């Protein structure tokens, strides 16, 4: 079967990169069954031939109106689809959608009529905000990192920047590669408007947000960038938990050492 990606290297490369990230999420044990979601704004990679493609689905409501997304294109993981399958067959387990002129609905244009993630409204709301801010970020990733989710079950870690400070202190690379730290959203029903609204608020100050007892939501330049930030935070959580399992409280880097890092690497915090 001919794919929309055939002969379109930039779009193909972006979808294949996203598929690679889906494989990493599965291999790390962060994407059980159909858990997790990825959406990527591919508008800049879509050529005129693709823009002329007819829809292969009925018009679908988004559920909210997002004026800044008029005419945008997104690659989305399919609802009910598994990351391990997306890694192997990205266009059979995901789809490319076009936002219509009413900014409140979309159609699927390729490759198959695979319905996007059920959390599409919240993902698109984040993309809309990124566009409004003039952000270069194009991707959002939601996944379930084991060690980070485990730490979210301890209420003492859920104060503002408590977990950020702890994770930064475990290894210098965490502060260097996730310089905004980790935002916290207290437990809310998955897929709810409350969860989406709280996430949007936290993403004003952070690139990665922890959903208490659930998972994380990250934004990045592309899916790999978002994954990398989650990955370094997860490594720090593993170091902390390994030290605790050995029977001691890890000392962590001091405030002075982390300040030295911020100056040396010109970090924002």
Describe the structure.
The chain is of the alpha+beta class and 269 residues long. The protein is 39% helix and 16% strand. The protein is built from ten helices and nine strands. Strands 2-5-4-3-1-6-9-8-7 form a nine-stranded mixed beta sheet, with helices on both faces. A hairpin with a 3-residue loop joins strand 8 and strand 9. Helix 4 packs parallel to helix 8.
Give the biggest sheet. Answer: 9 strands, mixed
Could you tell me the strand content as a percent range? 15-25%
The total number of structural domains is 2
How is the CATH topology of the largest domain named?
Answer: L-fuculose-1-phosphate Aldolase
* SS-derived structural category: alpha+beta
Low-confidence stretches: none
Strand ordering within the main sheet: 2-5-4-3-1-6-9-8-7
Identify the CATH architecture of the largest domain: 3-Layer(aba) Sandwich
Give the CA-based shape. Answer: elongated
Mean pLDDT, to the nearest integer, reads 95
State the order of secondary-structure elements, H for helix, E for strand: HEHEEHEEHEHHHEHEEHH
- First-to-last CA distance: 50 Å
> DSSP helix count?
10
Number of strands: 9
Q: What is the CATH first-level class name of the largest domain?
A: Alpha Beta
In percent, how helical is the residue content? 25-40%
Say which CATH homologous superfamily of the largest domain is assigned: Class II aldolase/adducin N-terminal domain
**Backbone CA Rg:** 19 Å
């Amino acid at each position: 079967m001919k794919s929309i990606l055939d002969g379109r290297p930039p779009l193909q490369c972006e979808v294949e990169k996203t598929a690679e990230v889906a494989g990493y999420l599965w291999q790390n044990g962060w994407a059980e069954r159909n858990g997790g979601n990825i959406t990527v704004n591919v508008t800049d990679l879509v050529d005129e031939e693709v823009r002329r493609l007819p829809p292969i689905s009925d018009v679908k409501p988004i559920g909210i109106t997002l004026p800044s997304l008029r005419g945008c294109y997104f690659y989305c993981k399919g609802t009910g689809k598994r990351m391990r399958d997306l890694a192997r067959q990205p266009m059979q387990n995901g789809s490319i959608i076009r936002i219509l002129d009413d900014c409140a609905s979309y159609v699927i244009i390729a490759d198959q009529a695979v319905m996007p993630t059920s959390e599409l409204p919240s993902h698109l709301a984040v993309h809309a905000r990124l566009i409004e801010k003039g952000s270069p970020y194009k991707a959002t990733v939601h996944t379930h990192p084991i060690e980070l989710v485990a730490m979210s079950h301890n209420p003492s870690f859920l104060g503002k920047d408590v977990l950020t400070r702890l994770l930064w202190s475990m290894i210098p690379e965490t502060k260097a590669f996730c310089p905004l730290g980790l935002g916290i959203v207290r437990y809310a029903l998955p897929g709810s408007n409350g969860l989406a609204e709280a996430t949007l608020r936290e993403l004003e100050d952070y690139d990665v947000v922890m959903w208490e007892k659930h998972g994380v939501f990250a934004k990045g330049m592309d899916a790999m960038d978002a994954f990398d930030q989650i990955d370094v935070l997860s490594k720090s959580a593993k170091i902390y938990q390994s030290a605790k399992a050995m029977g001691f409280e890890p000392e962590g880097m001091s405030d002075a050492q982390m300040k030295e890092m911020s100056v040396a690497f010109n970090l924002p915090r």
